[in-house]
Design a protein that fits this description.
The complex is a heterodimer. Chain A is an alpha+beta fold. Chain A has a single domain, classed as Orthogonal Bundle (Cytochrome p450), CATH 1.10.630. Chain A is built from 17 helices and 12 strands. Chain A has a 5-stranded mixed sheet, sandwiched between helices. In chain A, helix 11 crosses helix 12. The N terminus of chain A is likely disordered. The longest helix of chain B has 7 residues. A 5-stranded mixed sheet of chain B has the order 2-1-5-3-4. The model of chain B has no long low-confidence stretch (mean pLDDT 97). Chain B contains 3 helices and 5 strands, in the order E-E-H-E-H-H-E-E. Chain B is of the alpha+beta class. The chains are: A alpha+beta, B alpha+beta. Chains A and B meet through helix 7, helix 8 and helix 15 of A and helix 3 of B.
Chain lengths: 435, 109
């Protein structure tokens, strides 16, 4: 399976940077929507580039990202994340959620060792590759059911009616959240991820803070229920987990709430973005869907297809770190306190690591070395679940549907305004049931 | 403290032998706790990331055993480095008959 992405041709031809690289900024929605030429310019001209408007150094080369990701003490997630969170409105945001949302629960998992190790150990066993393999029939049933309900309508929104409700249904089943309202959870997800997106106005922050209060009050009630009476679900597992640490044998209430929140939000939002990208490719490159249909019973090729999709179109564009001591990176000396945005999407595009990076090539020998899940101690904890969801969705989609087309012009596709992810907002499609 | 012996051959040729590994521990954990270079184990031993890739010494291959289906699909993500004796060290749990086992650390990131 190998072909040039038409997106690549558009991006190489119509460079959105326009003129001097140093004038361009990742805060520009045009750059956010079509970023690859900008990334290319960063890598070749100024691989650790200070984006003055963002107030952050953009780290763009694969090798430099690896350096950062392998040294979590020099490059702190905890400090970088805290600096990014609700930036510009942090005090007001904190006051609102403390007053109306049961508290300000810092993300326990977005921390540094040794504290991080304790939290991470509890979360990583939930989604081992072997455990996720056992979930495949259950995930297939959810996905197939959703596609079946859409199939005869002939049209629908690939993001709003498929990707988002599908990933929400799957993570809610794992966490043990029944009778959930998918639209509400999607709103909460957007509100949470907007806090690291750097694009919200004060009015938007106020609306997001209100949604986050709603989310936290909902989760607090679910956690309290499990404290009173454990169930067979992941929230109960976290509430009652015993840690091998005599001084802190259990997670605190705040750690439980923040961990459940992280699993719920990260567990649906980024995977939904990947599914949106998948359907966009099916709709704009029908030969890809046709090719995939030939491999519909070949698990190895399906896995390779998913991995290359993740490399080519990573849902998470970039996450932050803060430098804790003066350090040289990519030929530049960074002072303690420098705030970095690690551009995973640019690393995946680095021609030094992935030849012809804008080409979709599922036969690459180093497929798994993309950075879409990050790397090092903070590598995505739900990566096996995400891969499985995308694989099942790809397989069941091409198995059941054909003639998948965009119902709007490609130029009308819009992306969420954020530096953290690259997410299609709505994706109107037409399709037919496969004969 | 256990009593099992394990030898890791790093990419730089340096051999690291651990003489007090415990039965039940994975080779990945033994490598990480003893500072073996090139074994990262990013995913924490969940068979999902292929950053603990080793080549099992051919003399030990039969006793160590083959990778299962899930491990094979994770190894396929680094097929450029894959050999017939490739294993993910997080999936090899030490047991008495592996006393003395020898593995080479695969090149990686």
């Amino acid at each position: 399976m190998s072909m040039d992405s038409s997106e690549a041709q558009v991006q190489a031809a119509g460079c959105p940077v326009g003129g001097d690289l140093l004038e361009a900024t990742l805060t520009d929605p045009v750059v956010q929507a079509r970023p690859n030429a900008f990334y290319q310019a960063l890598r070749s001209q100024d691989p650790v580039h200070f984006d003055a408007k963002l107030g952050m150094y953009l780290v763009s080369r694969y090798e430099d990202l690896q350096t950062v990701l392998r040294d979590p003490l020099t490059f702190s997630v905890q400090k970088g994340y805290a600096e990014q969170y609700a930036k510009g409105f942090a005090a007001e945001f904190k006051e609102i959620v403390t007053r109306d949302g049961g508290g300000f629960f810092t993300d326990a998992i977005m921390s540094d060792p040794p504290y991080h190790t304790r939290i991470r150990k509890l979360m990583e066993k939930a989604f081992t590759a072997h455990r996720v393999k056992l979930l495949e029939p259950q995930i297939t049933a959810i996905v197939s059911g959703m596609i079946e309900r859409m199939a005869d309508k002939g049209a629908g929104d690939g993001v709003k009616e498929f990707a988002v409700p599908m990933t929400i249904a799957i993570i809610c089943a794992q966490l043990g959240l029944d009778h959930f309202d998918a639209q509400r959870i999607q709103r909460w997800s957007i509100a949470v991820t907007a806090q690291i997106g750097r694009m919200q106005t004060r009015e938007q922050m106020l609306a997001h803070a209100k949604d986050i209060c709603d989310l936290q009050n909902y989760l607090i009630a679910r956690v309290r229920e499990r404290e009173a009476e454990p169930r067979e679900d992941m929230i109960s597992d976290l509430v009652h987990a015993r840690i091998d640490d005599p001084e802190h044998p259990k997670l605190t209430f705040s750690e439980v709430v923040s961990s459940v929140r992280a699993l719920l939000i990260a567990g649906n939002e980024t995977t939904a973005t990947a599914l949106g990208n998948l359907l966009y490719i099916f709709a704009t490159q029908p030969e890809m869907a046709a090719r995939l249909y030939q491999y519909v019973d070949d698990d190895r090729m399906l896995n390779r297809f998913v991995e290359e999709l993740l490399r080519l179109e990573p849902p998470v564009r970039g996450l932050s770190r803060m430098v804790t001591r003066e350090v040289e990176l990519g030929g530049k000396v960074l002072p303690a306190g420098a705030h970095l945005l690690l551009l995973y999407a640019s690393a995946n595009d680095d021609e030094q690591e992935f030849p012809c990076p804008r080409s979709f090539d599922a036969n690459r020998g180093n497929l798994g070395r993309h950075l879409s899940f990050g790397a090092g101690i903070h590598r995505c904890v739900g990566l096996s679940l995400a891969r499985m969801e995308i694989k099942v969705a790809a397989r069941e989609f091409v198995r059941r549907l054909d003639h998948i087309k965009l119902a709007i012009a490609p130029e009308e596709i819009t992306y969420l305004p954020t530096v953290a992810t690259r997410s299609i907002e709505r994706l109107p499609l037409t399709f037919a049931r496969r004969a | 403290m256990g009593s099992l012996r394990v030898t890791f051959v790093q990419q730089d040729g340096v051999e690291k032998t651990v003489a007090d590994a415990e039965a039940g521990a994975s080779l990945m954990v033994v490598a990480r706790t003893n500072g073996v270079e090139g074994i990262f184990g990013d995913c924490g031993g969940c068979c999902s990331c292929a950053t603990c890739h080793v080549y099992v010494d051919p003399q030990w291959q039969e006793r160590v055993g083959p990778a299962d289906e899930v491990e094979i699909s994770t190894l396929d993500m680094v097929s450029d480095l894959q050999r017939s004796n490739s294993r993910l060290s997080c999936q090899i749990l030490l047991r008495p008959e592996l006393d003395g086992v020898r593995v080479e650390v695969a090149p990686g990131e």
